[in-house]
Structures are given as C-alpha cells and as structure tokens.
Design a protein that fits this description.
The structure is a homodimer of 76-residue chains. With 76 residues, chain A is α+β, with helices and mostly antiparallel strands. Helix content of chain A is 32%, strand content 38%. Chain A has a single domain (2-75), classed as Phosphoribosylformylglycinamidine synthase subunit PurS (Mth169, Chain: A), CATH 3.30.1280.10. Chain A has two helices and three strands. The first copy, chain A, has a three-stranded antiparallel beta sheet with strand order 2-1-3. The longest helix of chain A is centred in the N-terminal third of the chain and has 12 residues, at 16-27. At the A-B interface, helix 1, strand 2 and helix 2 of A face helix 1, strand 2 and helix 2 of B. Strand 2 of chain A pairs antiparallel with strand 2 of chain B, so a sheet runs across the interface. Chains A, B: GO terms for molecular function: ATP binding; phosphoribosylformylglycinamidine synthase activity. Chains A, B: It is found in: Cytoplasm. Chains A, B: One of its GO terms (biological process) is 'de novo' IMP biosynthetic process. Chains A, B: Belongs to the PurS family.
C-alpha cells in the first residue's frame, strides 16, 4: 500500500519559506503570484496489513506538529 | 487560480530526510513502513490570467532543481 501525506502550516501561521519563494518569484518577473504556502509531502510505502489508521497515528506522533501544522492523507 | 506543485527527489537520488523519517517511524514501533520519500509541496495563489505554462516556467527556473528533482503540477 502506498500513502501520501501532506503536511502544511495551518492558516494564520507565518510561513517564511513560502514568503521567500513568493519574493523570489516576484524578483524573477512572475508578477501574478499572490500567495505561496510551502509544506511537506511524505510518500510512504507500507507493507500489506497497514491501514489508514496507522498512517493517522504516524502523523499525530511524528510527521506533523499538530500545534501549528495540519495534515491530510491520501491512500493510493 | 490555485496551483499545487509537488517537488520530489528523482528515483535513485539519495533522500536522507526520507531515510531519517523511516528510521524514526521504525523506532516508534511502526514496523510496516518499507520506504519513505520526502518532498516539498508548494501551493500557489495566482492572479487571473496566469496559465499552467507560467507555473511550469516557475518550476524550471526556481521551484525545482531539475538535475535531481522532478515536479508535477495540479491546477485546482
């Protein structure tokens, strides 16, 4: 089973990486960029028998800092 | 227009972040994790008139290092 996890900073949490990308894109002449948020994507290759609940537990325990980050799971 | 860009290390390129996550998950008792690859996700908020071609150009020029990274674009 394969799972893809997206971890993004919650809305309202300052995202300096995203801001840096936005500035850099502006400096390169991309003037239509109004906002950028950067996060992490984690692709997990799981043995048979693993469930979405396991992935949720991984997110809660390790992959995301749930104080400032939100996550979403896609099973593929 | 909103676009989501995924930037992942190409297959065969060593991914120390992914390996670190895999080890940490193993240490936490998640023994069904066979592989982990970590990448970036960049959410772009674009003004009207921006096209997918613009986003491709952003990837080629700034967002991805195409020597070692591949990218994919989703228009939302």
């Amino acid at each position: 089973m394969k799972a893809r996890v997206h971890v993004m900073l919650k809305n309202g949490v300052l995202d300096p990486q995203g801001e840096a990308v936005r500035h850099a894109l502006g400096a390169l002449g991309f003037d239509k960029v109004e906002g950028v948020r950067q996060g992490k994507v984690i692709d997990l290759d799981l043995a048979d028998g693993a469930t979405e609940a396991d992935v949720t537990e991984m997110c809660e325990k390790l992959l995301a800092n749930t104080v400032i980050e939100s996550y979403s799971i896609e099973i593929q």
